[in-house]
Amino acid sequence: MRYLILGGGPAGLTMAHQLLRRGEDSFLVLEAEEEAGGLCRSKQVDGYPLDIGGGHFLDVKRPKVKEFLFSFLGEEEWEYFERDSRIEIEGYTIGHPFEANIWQFPITEQIAYIKSIAYAGCNTGEAMPDDFVSWITWKLGKLIAENYMLPYNRKMYGNNLNILGTEWLDKLPNVSLDETLRSCLTHHAYGTQPGHAQFLYPKHYGYGEVWLRMAEVLGEHILYSQPVKKINFKTKTVETENGDNYCADRIISTIP
Ligand SMILES: Cc1cc2nc3c(=O)[nH]c(=O)nc-3n(C[C@H](O)[C@H](O)[C@H](O)COP(=O)(O)OP(=O)(O)OC[C@H]3O[C@@H](n4cnc5c(N)ncnc54)[C@H](O)[C@@H]3O)c2cc1C
After folding, report:
1. What is the mean pLDDT of each run of 10 residues along the chain (256 residues)?
2. How many angstroms is it from 8 CA to the middle of ligand 1?
3. Which H or E element spans position 253?
4. Which atom of ligand 1 is nearest to 30's Cα?
5. 142 φ, ψ to 5°?
6. Domain with CATH 3.50.50.60 in the chain
7. Engineered SS bond to 143: which of 29, 116, 217, 240, CB 3.0-4.6 Å?
8. Which residues line ligand 1 (CB under 6 A)?
9. First to last CA, the chain
10. DSSP 117-135
11. Taking the model in full, what pTM does it have?
């Protein structure tokens, strides 16, 4: 065959459909699990959808991506949500994002956080650090970093946060002293809210449904329970744990 796609998660499934839409028929997807979707899979538990890779929802900016996904799970099958997330901290509950909702703390805590933001490296002109932990402290101030952002990230990614690097962090909004003060005085969240303020989730299924439907259209072009064991890029062959061998002009791996 011409193309062998390894992994039937969102990337592999999308690649397969791009080929199909270009009229390419000579390809196969090899998926290790019994069903497609990868980290975006869902299970039904007690009649409710549970996303097995952590909570997932659809929030994409590019209309073409939405259009593509809606061609499998129609737009009318998705529910639109306005995000309402809360953070529980030190016995208080405040809105998300933390830095925009300091006004919801009692006055003493507000003052402490405002002072900490005033002394944050990014507000005092300190050079931007390279490692994650120092960067977070530099950007958000010591108190938000130590009470919230660092413990939160340790919970997500484990203890050695510095391996995360900092090159992707520019998406974090700035914490401005002026805006924090204004927000505390006027009792309103400040600034542009971060991403995912609105999102879509399937009405009747888990997030995994869209990927299941994509896989269904692929029919015999996708094989399940085929964990890839070895890839030989010279001979362009792939061996699976089951001892099967596959060969293609091009091998596209989406395996993490
Ligand atoms: C906590 C968390 C929350 C997220 N929230 C969202 C969200 O809300 N919305 C969103 O759109 N995205 C979200 N994402 C991102 C999303 O999960 C990934 O972008 C997406 O799953 C990546 O797709 P992929 O196909 O590259 O990889 P994967 O989803 O990892 O798929 C890889 C596929 O390869 C298969 N595979 C692995 N090893 C082998 C092997 N040896 N042989 C054959 N097959 C193999 C796997 O079984 C899997 O099906 C989130 C991710 C995480 C971790």
Report:
1. 98 98 97 98 94 93 96 98 90 91 96 96 92 94 95 89 88 81 92 80 97 98 98 96 97 95
2. 9
3. strand 250-253
4. 43
5. -60, -45
6. 3-82+206-253
7. 116
8. 6-12, 30-33, 38-40, 53-54, 56-57, 227-228, 254-256
9. 23
10. HHTSHHHHTPPPPSSHHHH
11. 0.82
